[in-house]
Hints:
The structure holds 2 protein chains of 2 kinds. Chain A is of the alpha/beta class. Chain A contains 23 helices and 19 strands.
Amino acid sequence: MSFKIENIGYKYSADTPQILKNINMEIKEAEVTAIVGPSGCGKSTLVSILSGVIPVLMNKGELTGSFQTGDDLVISVVSQTPENQLFGYGVEDALAFGVENMGLSNQEIHERVEYVLDLLHIQHLRKRAVSTLSGGQRQAVCIASVLAMRPDMVIMDEPVSSLDPQGKQLIQSVLNQLRASGQTTVIVDNNLDWFSDIVDHVVGLDGGEVVFDGNRDEFFAQFEVQQRLGVIIPQEVEIYRELSKKVSGLSSFSSLDGAYEVLHDRVKQTETAAALEKMENHSEEVLKVTHLSKNFQDGFQALKNINAGFSKGKIISILGQNGSGKTTLVKHLNGLYQPTEGEVTYQGAGTAGKSVAEISRDVILVFQHPEHMLFEENVYRELTFCARAQGVPFSEEEALAVLEKYDLLADKDELPVNLSMGKKHLLTILSVLFSSAEVIILDEPTLGMDLHLRNHLEGIIRHLKEKGKTVILISHEIPLVFKLSDELLVLDHASMLKEGSAQQLAGDEALFEKIHIDLPPVVQLSKKLGIKPLACNVEDFTDAIAEQVKIGGADRG
Amino acid sequence: MGDFLQYVELNSFLHRLDPRTKFVFFIIMSVLTSFVKSGVALLFLFLVFLAIWLIGHIGKYMLVLLNKVKVLLLFIFLLWLVLGAFTINEGPTIYRAAFSVIGNHYVFSLDWFDFYKGAVYALRIFLMISAFYTVILTTNFSQIILGLQSWRVPYAVAFGVGLVFQIIPMIVQEFATIMEAQKSRGLEVDKCSAFAKMKNYVIVSLPLLFRVLSKGHSISLSMHYYKLNFKVKRTSYQMIRATYSDALFASVTIIATVVTIFLQINYYIQI
């Protein structure tokens, strides 16, 4: 069945602003609909209305318009944190929880549990404890648990935001199964990159209003709307968008094969001047780990004989699947963990014996979840926390200027935990600008960020690099990693596989196959087109292509 | 810290028991340790517990528990030792002296019996805690809910109890992560005075509170998504059944209880 949303408006109380204004849309049966829009556009409120949280659980607001609801209608939600959603110790317990609540017979419950285990190909997980599952497996079980209730519609709220590439692949395959089975699905996520192949219909919200309603290809063709909504689009679409500004008469494409078809005739397999300009320059290693190994008390070996150096003024990304040892390694760099063997040196001196707070004056780690860090009473104090904790002088003007630059000035006196997830994360990262640390480690810094905030993040990382600081990045956003990084350090099963420049490692397909990470589309396309050295970001790629087209045009001329 | 206060997944005799059998064990042992004050009886009970832990392969986890509660046990031991030192007991004396404070006369008499008394009270407390912990280590929260439901405990109560045991490990983990995050951004909790350390721990409690509230909010939303309604009769996927092993364990519990009571009656020294 299709779902019609007619003239929906909502505000949380009589004296607060209107969050949703006259929303009209249709969610068609058996389609995958994406709801996109910047932070604060009303996506979460709309999900609350669709799922019945408003008005069943939250009944103080003013809701107008209509949306078909009823006791017989089952609309289930998969949240971004399955650990808060799964009730039950074992996978089977968690899968059965919703169906048990429906009061079905024991036989019917068994049939439904078997059905979802088969549908999503997760039979092998049935006897596992939920706590032992990987992030992707946990999310797959969460999806299965809501499907067991045979919902008329499933809504997924940023379902892969905290998953590694393997976890994302698992959820992509689960979504493909759902689509094939005719399940009506809504995905609320401003990152269209990971599910662009699956989505049929896109609805864009901004300022509480629908500003786009059309199919996927129509959305990909509307660059201004994408930018306005802060949607992260597949890199292939970004390549077309940027290239069409430089090369006239370009046919549109939104896939790797499509891009190759359009471009291969225009490109000769030569080394381009623009790319060759990028010469490697070596600088001093500010932080170094030597023969680093870590065994935990339960006998688990988290790191095996790691030798690596982190150069001054470089952006270095650590790549690997969850469990490869990335976080364990960076927790050694800032002293949270002590090595079983080997040592960590900062500017030639060992860090052993120093407290974490002492090391933070040189090496600072920003955690993945901003809620673990925020505790000051307002945004201004949170921004300047590191400076005050480390005794670094700063001026109020300086702090206010930073808040203004990153669109946080209006929130200056706000309680930090009340900000959107993306803004909270941005704030914790901004606070290191006022720290004395020369090495800044960012663990999954893009969590909860839309395109606008992500652009700010890129600006901050580049700013830190310009100031000569070393930035160590852990991120599952592989296109971003290749775009920003000077060097990559690849970990797999607690061992370091390789270290080198992004361009050097991009050429090593076997390495990325081994760690089950896909190279970004721009690198794959560069390879197919024979561009040398390989372009690791869209700008370099479009420069290379534009130069070749110019040369080709001049040759013909 | 990882395995503290939570179920440990093993396939032991204890783990396979019907949760109700373990609940009965917990109730009987709690009552027993509340009134038994005979050192011999408590020592016997401790040996029974030890055998159960070894058979259940949870010995090392009980050592972790002992390590966590050692300060409490030491405090109880010293408390009874000090209180006993101001009472004159029969039996061998280690040190005895009379003194007066503001005209009042006191006798300080440290006897071997004071050590016995301290040890008995510490052992009682440890057995009480470990009876509970034995059940927690070997019964996951889904089984706890099933067991309580089969005893006609309202589902809202059973679910609440199970939820507590689901959430405790999460909160413990959250606290550890918040501590790490705050230290990483410059909050000194290692090299500072006890007062500063305490103040900084209070600071850390704020993000923990926000995280717990946020988790509570997410859980209540999830209960809505899964259409959980305590007024509606729900059915069950898993079934629990008592087996021969349960009968055996129940017999051991009863025999141990009888022997303990016998030892209490015959070997009790007034304390």
